[in-house]
Design a protein that fits this description.
The chain is α/β, with parallel strands linked by helices. It has helices spanning about 30-40, 55-65, 100-110, 130-140, 175-185, 205-210, 245-255, 275-285, 330-335, 360-370, 400-415, 435-440, and strands at about 10-15, 20, 40-50, 70-75, 75-85, 95, 115-120, 145-150, 150-160, 165-170, 190-195, 215-220, 225-230, 240, 260-270, 285-295, 300-305, 315, 340-345, 370-375, 380-385, 395, 420, 445. The chain binds shikimate-3-phosphate and phosphoenolpyruvate.
Length: about 450
């Protein structure tokens, strides 16, 4: 429940060479889905490596509110005793999803085709984010919703008592929308079809198949066509959550811009729908290698090795790559500030409706640190100052957005002067061990 506490101002001073092994926490997307799919199975799902960030903990509480039993055994090991597809009970109170778009949108989808009513809310950031992108397709199943104007939370969802299956083409590249429709389709009879023009992260599809649902994915001229057969009996699973490539981005990018660094970030999933940042960094000339490439649980996994990279060049990031690195643009813009020449990031309108308007938040903070940024509705361009050229010295607003706060902490590690954020509190939503992990590598972070 980020944003409910006292702000935690933080400052990042120019770092010593970053050295060592960075064991980042579990994947946030997979952690949410493990709890939700566990709650939809009959029996005990055992999860290890669950991300214990606030976003995921809010989803765990929500699953309990809908009737599942969720047990924390400690050390990232959890059990979920599920109630089965269509087995959700009506919650006795409002569901607070804190800062988490993924949590609220996926859970709305799951309950939308059961004859129950639930009211959802979140923090000041989540309550500004658009929900019509989810409630529009849910209405096709027969679900009703009433929220604040503009389709904002708090919002009440009245689940369809007699849902019909749906064929839906997702109008924005969003795995959350795709997943909400697929989860709603679980309790509708017949086949629900979701079509996406651009492939987004595919954890829902992979995990539904793993839990025993009948689901197929076909790449066609219309786009990616996903077909789910409703009313399956989901079988509980044993899940080892892989480490989060979006969290790995922070120690990797910090190493690239901090003189003398050499950091190993082991066991990172390189699912092609998530790995775009790493190919972009290589295109910029980063000294970043994938060691020990292997396959685990059907997903490509590698140890990332990042070394100080004084000769990076600005590039045009291919817009077709946007969905596979959507959460990584803030920290990429920091690396771009330390490269020679301009980095153009286009086709990224979605950045404006995340925990914050991320183009606006980063542009303001980069400018406060002496970096030139130009922007339009769906693009922005950073003019790099070279590896030793970023003045720093700025105080940046994190606007309830964990990725903005962490990006500016990374910037301070390589800039000439310290970089501050007004509130590092949101970091706990996705990367609760960020300060200690970066500190152990040699970063100088301070609560100010
Ligand atoms: O499905 C998911 O787990 C997520 C999907 C993405 O959001 P959108 O679906 O809004 O693109 C991403 O930004 C978010 O961090 C996690
Ligand atoms: C966009 C993000 O998360 P969510 O949409 O779940 O709030 C994120 O973690 O960068």
């Amino acid at each position: 429940m980020s944003g409910h506490g006292t702000p935690i101002p933080m400052t990042s001073h120019r770092a010593d060479p970053l050295k060592g092994v960075a064991e980042v926490p579990g994947d946030k997307s997979i952690s949410h889905r493990s709890l939700i799919l566990g709650a939809l199975s009959v029996g005990e799902t055992k999860i290890s490596g669950l991300l214990e960030g606030e976003d995921v903990l809010d989803t765990a509480k929500a699953m309990q509110a809908f009737g599942a039993e969720v047990v924390n055994h400690g050390g990232g090991n959890w059990s979920v005793f599920g109630v089965g597809v269509g087995g959700f009970a009506e919650p006795g109170n409002v569901i607070d999803c804190g800062n988490s778009g993924t949590g609220v949108r996926l859970i709305m989808g799951v309950m939308a085709t059961s004859p129950i009513t639930a009211t959802f809310t979140g923090d000041a950031s989540l309550n500004k984010r658009p929900m019509a992108r989810v409630t529009d397709p849910l209405a096709l199943f027969g679900t009703q919703s009433v929220g604040r104007s503009g389709g904002r939370l708090p919002m009440t969802i009245v689940g369809a008592a007699d849902p019909v299956p749906v064929r839906y083409e997702v109008p924005v590249p969003s795995a959350q929308v795709k997943s909400a429709v697929l989860f709603a389709g679980l309790n509708a009879p017949g086949k629900t079809v979701v079509i996406e023009k651009e492939a987004t992260r595919d954890h829902t599809e992979r995990m539904l198949a793993g839990f025993g649902a009948e689901i197929t994915t076909e790449d066609t001229e219309e786009g990616r066509v996903i077909t789910l057969t409703g009313r399956p009996e989901l079988k509980p699973q044993v899940i080892a959550v892989p480490r989060d490539p979006s969290s790995a981005a922070f120690p990797v990018c910090a190493a690239l811009i901090t003189p003398g660094s050499d950091v190993l970030v082991p066991n990172i999933g390189l699912n092609p729908t998530r790995a775009g940042l790493y190919y972009t960094l290589q295109d910029m000339g980063a000294d970043l290698t994938f060691e020990n490439m292997r396959e685990e649980g059907g997903e490509p996994v590698a140890d990332l090795r990042a070394k100080y990279s004084p000769d990076m060049k600005g590039i045009e990031v291919p817009p077709a790559r946007a969905a596979s690195m959507i959460d990584e643009y803030p920290v990429l813009s920091v690396v771009a500030s330390f490269a020679e020449g301009k980095t153009m990031m286009a086709g990224v309108k979605e950045l404006r409706v995340k925990e914050s308007d991320r183009i606006d938040a980063m542009a303001k903070g980069l400018r406060a640190n002496g970096v030139t940024v130009e922007e339009g509705e769906d693009w922005w361009e950073v003019t790099g100052l070279g590896i030793d050229g970023v003045p720093g010295g700025g105080i940046c607003e994190s606007v309830l957005d964990h990725r903005i706060a962490m990006s500016f902490m990374v910037m301070g590690m390589g800039a000439q002067n310290a970089v501050s954020v007004d509130d590092g509190g949101p970091i706990a939503t996705s990367f609760p061990i960020f300060e200690s992990l970066m500190g152990n590598l040699g970063a100088k972070l301070e609560r100010t």
